[in-house]
Backbone:
């Protein structure tokens, strides 16, 4: 009896993309990495991803772009702060703009870490910019 994989085909592809990035992309600048990955997207997703890319970098120029599991991601001190996940990469209904653990979004005991994204209008631009600004601010000192 064949053993069934715990990972979906999309997840396996993401892991392979990450391994390829580790080998092939380490010699490239972050901008080059992202340009290569975005060329693989449909025109509609590419336009959305570039708009998000420009918004993130204009909002927080201290972030450094490079890919992460085949997705555009933005790093601060070598830690992923936020990323854009194209819908087509995982064959899902909408793209996602998400944050990782290093993002300073903590708000009491409950907060969102990812957002569905189908268009970038003035309202969503402002929301993303506000979240990115919050995510990169220094963490408050912990109480001892």
Residues:
């Amino acid at each position: 009896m064949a053993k069934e994989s715990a990972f979906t085909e999309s997840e396996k592809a993401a892991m392979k993309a990450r391994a390829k990035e580790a080998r092939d992309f380490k010699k490239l600048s972050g901008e080059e990495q992202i340009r290569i990955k975005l060329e693989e997207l449909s025109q509609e997703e590419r336009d959305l991803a570039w708009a998000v890319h420009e918004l993130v970098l204009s909002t927080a120029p201290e972030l450094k772009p490079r890919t992460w599991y085949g997705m555009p991601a933005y790093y601060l001190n070598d830690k992923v702060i936020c990323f854009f996940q194209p819908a087509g990469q995982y064959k899902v209904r909408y793209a996602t703009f998400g944050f990782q653990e290093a993002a300073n979004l903590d708000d009491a005991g409950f907060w969102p870490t990812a957002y569905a994204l189908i268009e970038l209008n003035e309202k969503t631009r402002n929301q993303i910019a506000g979240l990115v600004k919050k995510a990169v601010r220094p963490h408050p000192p912990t109480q001892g």
Summary: The CA atoms of residues 101 and 109 lie 14 Å apart.
